[in-house]
């Protein structure tokens, strides 16, 4: 015991790195709080979780960050929080 061959060490290192990377991404996603429509800033920006404006939603707004297809994504208007991709607010600007 105590002897670790190079191949085993590399496998262990690679799986640890992958686990830490994926775990970190999952924790960042979980750490972000969803914007609630009744929050003061959300109310001021008229944020809703389901857009009623035809063709305009958070998913196609230039303020929204993250991958297309994600249900909840970061937004420049609400730092540190995520918005519903189907939502809308008064700061909506069509993504170029």
From TrEMBL:
Pfam families tied to this protein: HIPIP
Iron-sulfur in keyword set: yes
Entries under SUPFAM superfamilies matching the protein: HIPIP (high potential iron protein)
Keywords: 4Fe-4S, Electron transport, Iron, Iron-sulfur, Metal-binding, Signal, Transport
Entry-linked InterPro entries: High_potential_FeS_prot, HIPIP_sf, TAT_signal, TAT_signal_bac_arc
Residues in High potential iron-sulfur proteins family profile domain copies: 29-96
Domain of life: Bacteria
Function: Specific class of high-redox-potential 4Fe-4S ferredoxins. Functions in anaerobic electron transport in most purple and in some other photosynthetic bacteria and in at least one genus (Paracoccus) of halophilic, denitrifying bacteria.
Subunit structure: Homodimer.
Name of the protein in question: High-potential iron-sulfur protein
Species whose genome carries this gene: Rheinheimera marina
């Amino acid at each position: 015991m105590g002897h670790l061959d190079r191949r085993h060490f590399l496998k262990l290192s690679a799986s640890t790195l992958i686990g830490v990377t994926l775990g970190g991404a999952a924790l960042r996603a979980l750490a972000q709080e969803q914007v609630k429509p009744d929050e003061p800033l959300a109310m001021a920006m008229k944020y809703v979780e389901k857009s009623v404006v035809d063709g305009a939603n958070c998913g196609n707004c230039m303020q929204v960050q993250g991958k297309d297809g994600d249900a909840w994504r970061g937004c420049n208007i609400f730092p540190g929080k995520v918005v519903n991709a189907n939502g809308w607010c008064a700061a909506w600007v069509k993504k170029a």
